[in-house]
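Problem 12. The chain below contains 256 residues. Write out its predicted structure in token notation.
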Amino acid sequence: MVTNATIETLLNRRSIRKFKDEAIDADTVATLETVAQRAASSQFLNDWSAIRVSDPAVKAKLAEFGHQPYIATAPLLYVFVIDEHRNARIAESKGIDPAGDDFKLKTSYRFTQAQNDAVLALHAMETAAYSLGLGCVILGSILNDINGLIDLLNLPEYTYPVLGLAIGKPDQEPTLKPRMPRTMQFFENTYPADSENDLSEALPAFDAEVHQYYDLRQADRPVDAFSDQIATVSGQDVSGKTLLDKAAAQGFTLDK
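Solution.
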């Protein structure tokens, strides 16, 4: 492999869930936020926003939603959201009624593109933070209570939460989590017809590698083999755990 400082930052990425009790200075905050703004944006709609959470009470509530106490200890904490609310106000100023059929930024296509843009911005911020010696963890867990999250952050019509990002100076050194062989995840031109055979060749070694990994959250035992994890998760009933049940109430028409 070729390498440089950026590649090394990305290759050494790991989730940090314990932070030193040290604030992040204003210059660093400005840098991280500016980097996030430079991420790709579909059709230059800039259809995401991020809420910087500094209120300890709000942090505690987010930790409650996520069932993860460390969320409340993050020196820097963001919630990234789809934001067509701002564009709705701009369109309205140009004579387009956001409540009418002429306003198309509330459809499933725009929702998905805005979600992608928010994730790209979050990832840019995360990478920049790691390059500055900080640690991060992406927080999908705060979506456990979509209704509560929308109410807590006072999210207006045409906005929707996507992910959280906790940032701070690392106070732990987890080992790098294994990744599957490239041959299992990268294909040439088309999806392989004989994917079952490919798995039989590469999966056993990956299972063994994963089973040797120790996660700091359960430091007393190795994690389950990858295939066992997939089997367990594939059998979990999450039919009642929908993430988009509040989308209509937020103004989005995801059936169009």
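Discussion. The helical segments are 5-11, 26-37, 56-66, 85-93, 108-131, 146-152, 195-211, 226-234. Students who got a different answer should revisit the alignment rule from Section 12.3.
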